[in-house]
Amino acid sequence: VGLVVGFSATSHVSGPSLLWALDPVARGRGVALAFFWLVSLLLSSLVWFIAVKASDPGDELLQKGLLIFGVLFSVLLQEAFRFLYYKLLRKAIEGLVALSEDGCSPISIQQMAYVAGLGFGLMSGAFSMINLLADALGPGTVGIHGDSQLYFLTSAFMTMVMIFLHTFWGILFFHGCETQRWWEMVAVIFTHLIVSGLTFWNPLYLGSLVPSYLLMFATAAWAYILSGGCTRNLLQSLQGEYLVQPHVQRRSPAEALPLRGRKGNARRGYSSVKDVASFDLSPFSRDVNPFLALASGETPQSGAIHQGDQGAAPFL
Amino acid sequence: FSSGFCWGNSVERKIYIPLNKTAPCVRLLNATHQIGCQSSMNGDTGVIHVVEKAQDLKWVLTDGPHPPYMVLLEGELFTRELMLQLKGSSRISGLAVAISKPSPAQGFSPGLKCPNDGFGVYSNDYGPQYAHCNWTVWNPLGNGLAYEDFSFPIFLLEDANETQVIKQCYQDHNLPQNGSVPEYPLCAMQLFAHMHAVTNTVTCMRRSSLQTAFSLNPEEVCDALSDYNVWSTLKPINASSKINPVDEVIIVATRIDSHSFFWNVAPGAESAVASFVTHLAAAEALHKVPDVQMLPRNIMFTFFQGETFDYIGSSRMVYDMKMDKFPIRLDNIHSFLELSQVALRNSSVLWVHTDPVSRRNESIQPQVETLVEALINSSVGANVTLQEVGQSQPLPPSSFQRFLRAKSIPGVVLADHRTSFQNRYYQSMYDTAENILMKYPEGLSPEETLDYVTDTAKSLAEVATVVARALYQLAGGTGNTSAIQADPRMVSRMLYGFLIKTNNSWFQSIIKQDLKGLLGDELPQHYIAVTSLVNTTQLVQYVLANLTGTVVNFTKEECLNPEKTPNPEKEMYVYTWVQGSRDPNSTSRVPFCVQSTVHLTKAASPAFELKQWGSTEYSTWTESRWKDIRARIFLIASKELEIITLVVGIAILILSLLATYFINAKAHVLFSSPGDGGTVAY
After folding, report:
1. Domain named Nicastrin small lobe: which ranges (chain B) (predicted)?
2. B294-307 confidence digits (pLDDT tens)
3. Among A42, A293, A5, which Cα is nearest to A154's?
4. Which of A65, B41, B545, B631 has the smallest number of CB atoms closer than 10 Å to its CB?
5. Would you say B195 and B624 are in contact if contact means Cβ atoms under 8 Å apart?
6. Residue B360: how many CB atoms within 10 A of its CB?
7. Residue among B410, B479, B65, B359 nearest B248 (CA)
8. Sign of the four-CA dihedral B7, B13, B19, B24
């Protein structure tokens, strides 16, 4: 029944993920990320399982409480693994930079933030949906015990919002880590807890889906701004490029913009790096961002690192 | 959340309710036909409709807007007319029959009107006027449903609680409200009972033998119905050699199996159990007589398995006797006494049936008369009146007919019916303890119920007494027979064990130690099945050994390995190490060794030995194989909802692709900071 539902509802990420899938480095990293998420889920479910087995199965309230505790623990563990991955990535990039000829890494931290979030989201989505899809293949639908008929549909939508949210949280989180803005990380953890907690209102689907979608749009807007966008750009793009040329002012990398009121300069010594583009203090405001880099066909740095048709944007 | 980790995940539990207490209808095949039911490979699904009166059927057959339907039928309506209507309809995907409590008042028998026709003695060559029930219809209530071929699955719902769950689901979702169409979601049922064998035994055995011969991983499609006959002799004989051709043996026979429309549902109280319990009681009574070892003639107590399916057990024994594979030959048989259905005697009359065709023989006729006379003499003083049926009436369906096919032997068949059966539930699921009027008072514990002597038990004990006394006289005994008495308490215990619960203390004390799976708590069933040594056969064997054997003072090693200690007598006997009864104070049992003359002999149709799968001479019944038999209920969603969901999903997919394309194309606009723009990466 809901087979195509779930499939199509979660296939919204097929667009961006296709881009991601074309880049082998990003792909590899993304798979590693998915694995990280799985490990975090495994550990948190182990904790919950042990707690459940050790407790009295008859006590409904206790079981519910244990479930809430399990969800809390799982959220915190996922975020912890995200941080862990960030740390790992930093180390990897340092290493790659040291190895590379011109002192630039083949892939930027912003791209990795996006890929990180996407990897987490896809894995979480797959995990949520595969189970349901397997049972959706049968002739029956949910409801004989009184549950809502819209179970599959709402599960699909919930999964979609979680995938989106994971992607944006990835961007936010990594930005927070990069710029030492701890409150951004706290915000990510906080919203994650809220969204997971909202699912306890199911089957009052309005109570869980609507706030989750609102939160998702808010997070999306925030991530967009951090990636270098603003409402003017949005309006411009909607008006169509036929009318107005984008404000393309070619500047040399050396004329990097000064900090626009942003603080935090905790960059490590990359003195060998001529080009500060990757590791600029305001990385997300700069040209180097995943879409831009890949879309314009120019790879970060020399492009010698990447093989394959990186230049061609998939939909052109 | 915490319990039920074994079954499914929680989503599956939200969707399906499995039905556990069900019995399927499976496919059986013989030389020319297939009977029974078949489902699709992945089960048959249908919207549930409860049919409680005949008018409800109209909705299923013509009016209902959501075919195909899965009919939930009340047991009272399970008749031939209704089933033929359903058989012809394409709007039925399956049937679930709720067992009717109490049993239908008008009687119900899915067997044939003329059971085992064509495999008995009467044919065009022998008593043609008696063939095909031309003279007497033995089972007039038989509607032959069990011998029809259905293309949809039919299940029996044995538990009234499960039936109520299904009816509740139906009332919540499927009831038409004031004539309007019921709306989705609808309650539906899915039955899985896919059978592998098709057409007939010839086809399925051929396919199976090809598989076994040529395939590395053979997938057989059917199995022959086979089991073991149980036999025992009053005076011990050497079972590995032949007895003296001069010796004479009187054979006493009963059948121990039954059948019904559904697989492994065969309570068979009147058709089998009462008869063999009486037989066992007579054997016990005879063994207690002090001078039986000096009787001129021997008596063989035989319990045939598979008689329901064209005389599997008796045809095999006759074949073995003819082929000299059995210690006793056909020439050794002096006379034959069979106990057919004996529990429902009308005003304590027991009818004596004989074969009119063989009685025309001058040597047979006086022997038959002697037989009958012995029986009538034995009934003096007992509450049994023996009466002969008309001399021109044929034999009812009985194992004796198979012996007559081979050789004219003087014999009688004892039954509680003169013409047609008294049993109104012949070979059906309603032939239970209630059918033979076994009544227990309320509030008894299982142990007390075991020992309580019902009126049925007393009545059957009297029949056993008459049979035992007659046999003593026929075997040449000259003493006073009034001391020969069957024990009603023992009869009652056996009836309890074979009809109500096999897991009782007496059965536990007479079986071997390592056979724990033999005794169960559910109602005992007596179907021959395809696996060897069904519970019934084994229990009859142990009970017979206990009732007719003697306790000997052997150790466990000596008992289990009797050939180790040299003793010529040892070859005549069979030794069984039984676990004994439990001490009331302790939890351990006191096992002991039983010496008896109880043997098992294979009861598989000679047609399979001879590989004559299309034989009309011997039984060719086989049972199909299957992989998965189960039933479940759930809700099904409307097609509209499914389409909407699909369209929404595709729309979101297209939307997301377009959005990605858009973002991708406008990336340089969207993500450029105001004032610096720039697509330059580095």
Report:
1. 24-197
2. 999 999 999 999 99
3. A5
4. B41
5. yes
6. 11
7. B410
8. negative
CB atoms closer than 10 angstroms to residue A173: 26
d(CA A175, CA A184): 8
Q: What is the mean pLDDT of chain B?
A: 91
The pLDDT of residue B127 is above 70: yes
Residue of A3, A7, A8 best to disrupt the B interface, most CBs of B under 10 A: A8
Q: Give the minimum alpha-carbon distance from B436 to chain A in angstroms, rounded to a whole number.
A: 42
Longest dimension (CA), chain A: 69
Q: Residue A283's pLDDT is what?
A: 40
Q: What angle do CA B189, B195, B199 make, to 5 degrees?
A: 130
User: Does residue A67 sit at the B interface (CB-CB below 8 Å)?
Assistant: yes
Q: Which band of pLDDT confidence, cut at 50, 70 and 90, is reported for residue A310?
A: very low
Neighbours of A21 (CB within 10 A): 13
Note which residues in 601-660 of chain B have CB less than 8 A from chain A.
Answer: 633-637, 641-642, 645-646, 648-650, 652-653, 655-657, 659-660
* Contact in structure between B631 and A139 (CB atoms under 8 Å): no
Please give the Cα distance from A253 to A102 (Å, whole number): 15
DSSP string, A73-100: HHHHHHHHHHHHHHHHHHHHHHHHHHHS
Q: Which tokens go with B291?
A: 């001078």
Select the more confidently predicted residue: B358 or A88.
B358
Q: Which residues contact A196 (CB under 8 A, 6 or more apart)?
A: A71, A72, A74, A75
Average pLDDT over residues B73-80: 94
Chain B contact present for A152, CB below 8 A: yes
- Say how many Å lie between the first and final Cα of chain A, rounded: 35
DSSP B272: I
Confirm or reject contact between B5 and chain A (CB < 8 A): no
- Which chain A residues are closer than 8 Å to B676 by Cβ? 249, 251, 257, 286-287
Q: Do residue B14 and residue A142 have CB atoms under 8 angstroms apart?
A: yes
Residues of chain B found within 8 Å of residue A55, distances taken between Cβ atoms: 2
Tens-digit pLDDT profile for residues B312-371: 999 999 999 999 999 999 999 999 999 999 999 988 999 999 999 999 999 999 999 999
| Backbone φ and ψ of A18, nearest 5° | -65, -40
Amino acid at A127: F
- Token pair recorded at residue B141: 């209530």
SS3 labels along B422-445 = CCCCCCCCCCCHHHHCCCCCCCCC
C-alpha span between A163 and A118 (Å, rounded): 7
pLDDT reported for residue B4: 35
The model's pLDDT over B264-319, given as tens digits with 9 standing for 90+, comes to 999 999 999 999 999 999 999 999 999 888 999 999 999 999 999 999 999 999 99
* Residue B559 confidence (pLDDT) above 70: yes
Listed by number, the residues of chain B in 24-83 with a beta carbon closer than 8 Å to a beta carbon of chain A are 45
Residue B130: what pLDDT?
94
- CB nearest B666 (choices: A5, A149, A237): A237
Q: Which ranges of chain A does DSSP label H, i.e. alpha helix?
A: 3-10, 14-22, 24-54, 60-99, 109-136, 151-178, 182-198, 205-226, 231-239, 290-295
Report the amino acid identity of residue B12. Answer: E
Q: Is the CB of residue B675 less than 8 Å away from at least one CB of chain A?
A: yes
Q: Are B39 and B96 in contact (CB under 8 A)?
A: no
Of B635, B655, B671, which is closest to A144 when you measure between CB atoms?
A: B635
pLDDT given at position B309: 96
Alpha carbon of residue B474 to chain centroid: 34
The pLDDT value recorded for residue A251 is: 45
Instruction: Return the residue of B nearest to A296 by Cα.
Output: B679
